[in-house]
Amino acid sequence: LLAAPQAAAVEAPGASAAAERLNEAIPLDSQAALDAWLRDHSGRRTPFDALPPGARERFLLSLRWGSRGLGGFDAGVLADELPQPQIDAILRLFGEPVARHAPTSRLSRQTPAETVKVAGAGIGPLERRYNDFYRAMHAQDDADRSIRVALLGERFDALLADAYAAQALRNVDDRHLAMLWNAAASAAQLTKRARHVAALEAVFAESLRRSGGQPADGRVRTMRDVLLAVRRFDDARHLGARHPSALAPLPEFVEPDVDDRPAHGVWRMSADGSSLTHEAIDLSGTRILVTAGCHFSVDAAADISADPVLGPVFAEHASWLMLPPGEEDIDAVRDWNRRFPRAQALMVQDRDGWPMPGDWPMPEFHVLRDGRIVETLTGWPRGDARQRDALVAMLRRADLLPTAPASP
Predict the structure, then answer these.
(1) Where are the alpha helices (DSSP H) in 325-373?
(2) Which of 81, 113, 130, 249 is the most exposed place for a label (fewest CB within 10 A)?
(3) In angstroms, how far is CA 34 from the centroid of its own chain?
(4) CA atoms within 13 A on the CB side of 390
(5) Taking Cα atoms as reference points, which of 120, 112, 107, 98 lies closest to residue 45?
(6) Quick one: what percent of the chain has pLDDT higher than 70?
(7) For residue 155, is it left (φ>0), alpha (ψ between -120 and 50) or beta?
(8) Higher pLDDT, 243 or 26
């Protein structure tokens, strides 16, 4: 573990006993521990000094703590701002398990001197506006999705919309262009409003100009995901044709001739994965809907498909629902369907109109009767027999499984 020696190395001779104790307490495993460490190291060099002031503010805003220490952080802040050794040095402060999730730097090998120079500057007007948007975005992490959509769309428009004119984008450096890309990507992915998608396209166009037509693969993928999310399928396909090294070919999207998309519309993938056909799900009678997509959902599909009691009832009555194209990776759906022939995934047309509220935790099991949710069970901790028993009991109450015989 390199954190303690590194932190100790930046202390001046004669560091206080309190500082030494704090260094020995690394990894930092709570907000209180981090606050105390920062207070004690005020005025001394630390790995955080590599971050420019605005980026440091954003990184600290992004930290999410769990019972075992740091549970989440914005990897993009570090990847956009620092070379790899400085990323690793910061994350080692939080322990080796966190350091193993260090993002790969997006900077070239020639960038460190530039980064050090920027780190000595303050937070300029454009970056301050971006940080205000970033703060609003993270402050709403636990809010209802509809509230986040409205608030963050409003904050983007008020703080940053004027920065996306073509000439304004030409006048900013690469570092600020990355900030504007991140803001527009967040707004477009969340709101799907045309003006926010247009802002993202404007930054993408400037990235094309600066890169000689070869922007970073991550930006190409994000741009196509947004085009898919707003159902601009032809534009997404054309983008893939222009950047074949960054994007796998898309399946064919088969839509009805008349634009009468039902509220419970889904995209069903063909057996060979070459097409997605739009259709409606009938929610009459008693049905099971599963919101899926994460690795816990994979565990659930594997366990339930192999379960002699749950497998048959899910095969007959359940629909495994994933987020729409662009929000969910199409290749991941293709792989899922190959792995789970008895639990085929359907990509929803959009989240609106479905009876499931909120942000669609994954996996979450809903029993519906004639389109109305009557009972819900959340999560699938693998190997926990109690969760399986709870699911069996829920299906019995819905008359989808026979009632257990009474004990003698």
Answers:
(1) 330-339
(2) 113
(3) 25
(4) 14
(5) 120
(6) 88
(7) alpha
(8) 243
Q: Measure the CA dihedral 200/204/206/211, to 10°.
A: 160
Query: Given this model, what pLDDT does residue 143 score?
Result: 74
Count of alpha carbons within 13 angstroms of residue 70, beta-carbon side: 27
Closest CA to 318 of 356, 353, 346, 351: 346
318 residue type, one letter: A
Residue 210, classed as helix, strand or coil, is helix
Three-state DSSP class for 169?
helix
Q: Out of 33-37, 113-117, 172-176, 327-331, pick the least confident.
A: 113-117
User: Which tokens hold the place of 74?
Assistant: 């914005």
Identify the H or E element spanning 187: helix 174-191
pTM for the model: 0.85
CA distances to 160, 244, 296 from 156, in Å? 5, 32, 33
**pLDDT for residue 11:** 35
Q: How far is residue 14 from each of residues 7, 38, 44, 86, measured CA to CA in Å?
A: 14, 18, 13, 25
Q: Name the residue with tokens 């009876």.
A: 355
Within 13 Å of residue 63, how many CA atoms lie on the same side as its CB?
20
Task: Extract the tokens encoding 241.
Answer: 């044709």
Q: How far is CA 39 from CA 36, 46, 59, 65, 147, in A?
A: 5, 12, 17, 19, 35
Measured CA to CA, the distance from residue 71 to residue 85 in angstroms comes to: 22
Nearest to 105 by CA among 121, 89, 120: 89
CB 247 within 8 A of CB 220: yes
Residue given tokens 């899910």 in the structure block: 314
The predicted-structure confidence for 174-218, as pLDDT tens digits, reads as follows 999 999 999 999 999 999 999 999 999 999 999 999 999 999 999
For 15, other C-beta atoms within 10 Å of its C-beta total 16
Bridge partners, 105 (sequence order): none
Query: Which residues make Cβ contacts (< 8 Å) with residue 106, sequence separation at least 6?
Result: 79, 80, 216, 218
Residue 189 has, within 13 A of its CA and on its CB side, a CA count of 17
Distance of CA 250 to the CA centre of its chain: 21
Cβ–Cβ under 8 Å, residues 93 and 66: no
Range 22-32 average pLDDT:
77
Q: How far is CA 354 from the centre of its chain?
A: 21
Amino acid at position 36, single letter: A
Q: Could you tell me which of 73, 48, 72, 59 has the C-alpha nearest to residue 39?
A: 48
Asked whether the beta carbons of 119 and 51 are under 8 A apart, the reply is yes
